[in-house]
Amino acid sequence: MKVSYNWLKQYLKLDMPAKDLAEKIERTAVEVDSVTLGETGLKKLVVGHILTMSNHPESDHLHICSVDVGEDTPLQIVCGAPNVAAGQKVIVALPNSRIGGNVKIKRSKMRGVESEGMICALDEIGFSKDVVPKEWADGIYVFDDNVPVGEPVYHYLGMDDPIIDLDVTPNRGDMLSIIGTVHELAAIYDQHPEIKQPVVNEDDSIDAANEISATADEQLAKTYKLRVIKDVKVAPSPSWLQITLWNAGIRPINNVVDVTNYILLKYGQPLHSFDQDKINGNIVVRNAHQGEKLTTLDEDEQELSPEDIVIADDAQPIALAGVMGGLNTQISDQTQNVVIESAIFDSFHIRKTAQRHVLHSEAAQRFERGINPDGVEDAINEAAALIHQLAGGKVAKGIVTASDYHPALPVIAITADRANHVLGTTLTIDEIQSIFDRLGFTSVKQGEGLAVTIPARRWDIHIDADLFEEIARIYGYDNLPATLPTGRQTIGVLTATQRLERASRQILEGIGLTQAISYSLTTAEKARMFLMRASEETKLLWPMTQDHTTLRMNLLSGLLDDVAYNHAHKVDDVALYEIGRVFYKDSADQIRPEEVEHVAGVITGNLTDPSWNNHVKPVDFFVMKGMVHQFIVNLGIKGDIEYVAADHYPEMHPGRTADILIHGHQVGFIGQIHPRIAKQFKVKETYAFELNMQALIDLPKNDDQYQPIAKYPSIKRDISMIVDSNVTNDQVVAVMQKRGGAYLHGIRLFDVYEGKNVPDGKKSMAYSLTYVNPRETLKDEVVNTAFEKIKKRLTADLNAEIR
Amino acid sequence: MSLRDQLSEIKENGLANISQAADLKTLNEIRVHLLGKKGPITAALRGIKELTPEERPQVGSYANKIRDAITTAVAAQRDRLEARQLNAQLAAEKIDVTLPGKPVAQGQPHVIQQIIDQIVDLFLGMGYEVLTGPEVEEDKYNFEMMNLPKNHPARDMQDTFYLSKEILMRTQTSPMQARALEKHDFSKGPLKMISPGIVYRRDTDDPTHSHQFHQVEGLVIDEHITMADLKGTLITMAQNIFGDKFDIRLRPSYFPFTEPSVEVDVTCFNCMGKGCDVCKHTGWIEVLGAGMVHPNVLKMAGVDASIYGGFAFGVGPDRFAMLKYGVDDIRDFYLNDVRFLNQFSKRGN
Ligand SMILES: [Zn+2]
């Protein structure tokens, strides 16, 4: 709500700069979007009087004007506006002035004729085209005759009035009005403004009840009131009213419509005016019928739904209640008889209607937030009085009331103890009462506390907590002490799961992976890649973009998006991990997915930058495997870790992928991204893993025990063999472990070779075996015997040729 | 020449040779020569039998002194030569210490994670527990139990991704308030919790909006928790995350689940409160929302609002990170450009 500082000053004694006032409002009531002054940035704009005007000899639309600007000699100004005429008082930009958009005006020649400045239209001096009245939209602005020549124009256009734009929260609908804002400021500055009741001079010879009748569904309109004004003369509003409206961001239309908008600003009560002669019969407030249509004032045809509230006459809808009037009954220049409506429409319906028709009008905004039931009649009375004053005519006697609503004022009991208990203050009951006095809430002492009566204009206050807020903000949040909670002690510790997750991050970062956080919402296609279990997709009902329609069922597709982004920005080396949720559904009927924590990683390119002493090798499967393995080892999960060749992931390289099993439980997979998928994502050769983090958390962990370091020396034996190419390391190691004897302590593969000097279909493998006896020094003979046994078994079981 | 004089001459010559020895090999040869069985001292001492029995022990002990002097001189010269050799070696080993070190592979925590961890650690220290909850929520927890019934206008403040009429992507971490309140046994002690997590809004991504971002919810409920406690807690958090020079201020606001409700501003990072374009010349920047838990929220979760009450707050780690580091586009957090992520390698925040 754009609030005029000058308007507030009509009620309150305020002499601080507008900026200070705005800050006070912000700290005590609602946020302030901006404080603006129309004249800011303008220079040397004065009222000029066009003495004479002649046609430009070289142009068919330019005029040469002689303009009195209060100097000794008039200025010669060339003007091309279609509405310029001798005798007008106009906005003159003097030579070396500055107009809107920071444009400088200088003496110039226009088609050979000197022009000492410029005669301006409103939008040329900074007005938004949205608020310029139609009559001045296509030409220069013309002042009333009584404006003094030579004076700066700002005051006469309201541009010297600071405008404070309030960002009113949904609960403070009362501040969408000047009177509401005045009440608020009165509390802040402890003043007692006088707000006069309007007085209407009714014409006893005309009875409103004979002019029109109205019925209303009270569910739709708790209050519905009409007044009738006969024989008005529709004309432009006086400049004070036009200024008031355009400073509030509303375009002046005519003296009837402008009055209704003025009342909207002043009371926060939206009014609507109908041309009485265009209404067929009686008025009814009802739900729209299916299929009904209404062309609203913005000349759009609205398809109405039964959830819309309409004002209808005997024939058709004539207004979309509380949102926008109908074109069929709008006030025109020919209108003679006016019906004014002041009502309270149901906020929920209005909100839905405004959303459905995308009509967030000033009226709709107010009905959505609520209306002061005590202001409905004042508003319609003041509107009638003002129309009578500005447009003449006769105000028919009486108000036609279809429905009426005067709720009992709530009385809330509070004590100082309770207020201090909640706020942490030490206020006395008298101090609290004085705050309510300032707010204009009647309060009476009741036992230890107060019974506070809430005026109708503060319909946001229902319970004691609401009053504590009023106390706190008027007392001032700055005055609140700052303490920390006391009371019973609590222990702040991470849960086992949280500790494991934090440890996981530290391990993965230590290994060289950087944490990524990717989007959980992705495309349906990416969501279902890299599936570790069967699952249906979880889709949004109304996605915002095609890129984010479906909840991910894997982390890898997001990480591949990240790799692609890096590649697209010329970063070839990427090493990322992510811990996050994936979302599974067992069946399409299931609406709410199961959320499972996963961990995934990707590496591509080099792990470190090549350097003068760092001869890097691009990552491969085994670099990734080393990382994953270390990660799992660090988590201390009980049981063997197995890597089982897996060719069943469509998005993974079928020959370079393994399922990862711990103690027989599958926890995830590792491998190279399938080249087809890599191409699709536009990523280079990339290695990846994805694990079920929850499974890692849930699996039993090793006991916290250490193995003493053997005191006796170990003995090493190297073994080299030729085996068939398809014999795996796991097979070799299994034989060694099974047949290695009691003292075989470690098996380390130190060479694998295929090629020259090794027959086709064969490969050479070399292992280093370590034997230790923790209880005594091992004898060579013992080791030799054990070693020979292994050789024999390798030969027998794997057809190995020992070298 | 007397035997004694002969020995003196051997000594003089020997010591001179030792001090002139240029390397260890020469020095060793000199030593072996002087002290050996075929050396000059042994040779000279053959003449000892010519001396009187009284003279013999004196010359004998003089010869021993000379041997000691030579041994000492050889050791001293060896030390000198060894030191010279080492120095020569060290001089030859000189490197250009300005050559770059060998690159080390090191991963970084995501900057938002760092902020979350910092908040979590602070509140753990103050006795809070850390709770996490579902990202796919029921309307009941996300809205209704947060005092936002179906037709509440404030629902429009948060555009929501729905999966069905009742199931949605949580728009805030506040549903964890309701979930925690429902479960907590107040006979065992107060509820003090924070809940970090991802939230979703039906927003178009732009420099200041993201359809996915983070929140950390905070909630303290006990028999006597005040708004002053809220203020003190928030000051503690602001100073812990941003620095001791930062102050906060509370402004009235509106959230359906708190009453009173406040927006919390922190001293402007750019101008430290003097006023600048970043803070619209107020010296303050809005960072979070907070308030005293609305009695309806307590009642709906089955907590007796006449006995228990407290405060709640919601922090945006994305916003904190943007302010703290001057990041001007929230989308940077979710693109995972490694050049961006690896910048946040400063530890010990
Ligand atoms: Zn600033």
UniProtKB/TrEMBL annotation, chain A:
Entry keywords, A to Z: Aminoacyl-tRNA synthetase, ATP-binding, Cytoplasm, Ligase, Magnesium, Metal-binding, Nucleotide-binding, Protein biosynthesis, RNA-binding, tRNA-binding
Domain (FDX-ACB): residue spans on this chain: 710-803
The protein's Enzyme Commission number: 6.1.1.20
Example of a GO MF term: ligase activity
Domain TRNA-binding, first and last residues per copy: 39-154
List of residues binding Mg(2+): D460, D466, E469, E470
Domain B5, first and last residues per copy: 407-482
Pfam families cross-referenced by the UniProt entry: B3_4 (PF03483), B5 (PF03484), FDX-ACB (PF03147), tRNA_bind (PF01588), tRNA_synthFbeta (PF17759)
Required cofactor(s): Mg(2+)
Enzymatic reactions: tRNA(Phe) + L-phenylalanine + ATP = L-phenylalanyl-tRNA(Phe) + AMP + diphosphate + H(+)
Family: Belongs to the phenylalanyl-tRNA synthetase beta subunit family. Type 1 subfamily.
Quaternary structure note: Tetramer of two alpha and two beta subunits.
PANTHER family: PHENYLALANINE--TRNA LIGASE BETA SUBUNIT, PHENYLALANYL-TRNA SYNTHETASE BETA CHAIN AND LEUCINE-RICH REPEAT-CONTAINING PROTEIN 47
Classification via HAMAP family: Phe_tRNA_synth_beta1 (MF_00283)
Protein name: Phenylalanine--tRNA ligase beta subunit
Organism annotation: Lentilactobacillus fungorum
Top-level taxonomy: Bacteria, Bacillati, Bacillota, Bacilli, Lactobacillales
UniProtKB/TrEMBL annotation, chain B:
Swiss-Prot/TrEMBL keywords: Aminoacyl-tRNA synthetase, ATP-binding, Cytoplasm, Ligase, Magnesium, Metal-binding, Nucleotide-binding, Protein biosynthesis
SUPFAM superfamilies (alphabetical): Class II aaRS and biotin synthetases (SSF55681), tRNA-binding arm (SSF46589)
Coiled coil: none
Gene3D superfamilies tied to this protein: Bira Bifunctional Protein, Domain 2
Binding site for Mg(2+): E259
The keyword Ligase is assigned to this record: yes
Record family assignment: Belongs to the class-II aminoacyl-tRNA synthetase family. Phe-tRNA synthetase alpha subunit type 1 subfamily.
NCBIfam families noted in UniProt: pheS (TIGR00468)
Quaternary structure annotation from Swiss-Prot or TrEMBL: Tetramer of two alpha and two beta subunits.
Protein name: Phenylalanine--tRNA ligase alpha subunit
Organism: Lentilactobacillus fungorum
Protein's gene: pheS
